[in-house]
Design goal:
Blueprint (H helix, E strand, L loop, with lengths): L4 E5 L9 E5 L5 E4 L1 E2 L3 H4 L12 E2 L2 H7 L9 E3 L1 H10 L3 E6 L5 H4 L2 H9 L9 H11 L3 E8 L5 H15 L3 E6 L10 E5 L3 E7 L5 E7 L2 H17 L1 E2 H11 L1
């Protein structure tokens, strides 16, 4: 069975080497570097067994990207603590949305209205809109990239319609087809101020189970790289809506 490798990081400034990957199944670290092949060099290695390979990597690669703990212990927070992050962030809050739907949306009366009429209502007095308007009025940036299936699910069409409401309070909502997002993490997360990541864990019925905070610099950088890639390829919600409309 093939390994499930996740890119961890690289200190390469030009080409793709060296780098670290993590095997999500076993926790093993895969080191990518320059092969050590000279017999004189290999002869100096201790405990070098048959079938093993040696690679050379800069020390900074392991310092910057190597795991800091034998086992990662998740730091879980309650929803009240999570909500306060949207009031206390200093500069930016950004989300990647990857799921085909969310149970919380299906329970929302606005979703039911969309299913019935094809349009979602807008209440500017909702706490979310009031807070985000205050944050963006203060010069802070709030944005999302949503990954959509082809064709989009009903829940994704609801959020696409709802994006116009998010935009009225300053959110930058963008979209990316799933087929163009294969290099991105298959998980939902928020990044606050490029220093803290909140990973949202869901069950198979799209209910959010818990919220994990990550502050380890190497992990935060990994999510930030994903954010930059998503923003590079995604298109504004209104352009995406036009693409969807042209498919109907």
């Amino acid at each position: 069975m093939a390994r499930q490798l996740r890119f961890t990081g690289t200190d390469s400034k030009v080409d793709g080497c060296p780098a670290l990957h993590t095997d999500d199944g076993t926790g093993e670290i895969i080191v990518q570097g320059t092969p050590v092949t000279e017999p004189e060099d290999l002869a100096q290695l201790q405990h070098f067994g048959p079938g093993e390979a040696a690679v050379a990597v800069p020390r900074e690669l392991l310092v910057n990207w190597g795991p800091k703990e034998m086992e990662r212990v998740p730091e879980l927070v309650d929803r009240a603590t999570f909500r306060r992050l949207f009031e206390t962030f200093k500069h930016t809050a950004w989300r990647l949305e990857t799921r085909r739907g969310y149970a919380s949306d299906r329970e929302d009366p606005d979703f039911q209205a969309f299913v019935a009429t094809g349009s979602s209502p807008f209440d500017p007095n909702e706490p979310w809109f009031i807070n985000i308007q205050a944050q963006t009025d203060a010069g802070k940036q709030v944005g999302r990239v949503r990954i959509a299936d082809n064709p989009p699910t009903t829940e994704q069409l609801f959020l696409l319609d709802y994006a116009r409401h998010n935009a009225t309070v300053g959110e930058d909502i963008r979209y990316l087809w799933r087929e163009d997002a294969t290099a991105l993490p298959a998980e939902d997360f928020w990044i606050f101020d490029s220093r803290l990541v909140a990973v949202l864990h869901f069950d198979d019925e799209d209910n959010m189970l818990d919220i994990e905070l990550i502050t380890e610099p190497a992990e935060v950088v990994r999510y930030s790289i994903a954010r930059d890639a998503a923003m590079h390829h995604a298109v504004p919600y209104d352009q995406f809506a036009a693409q969807v409309a042209a498919m109907e």
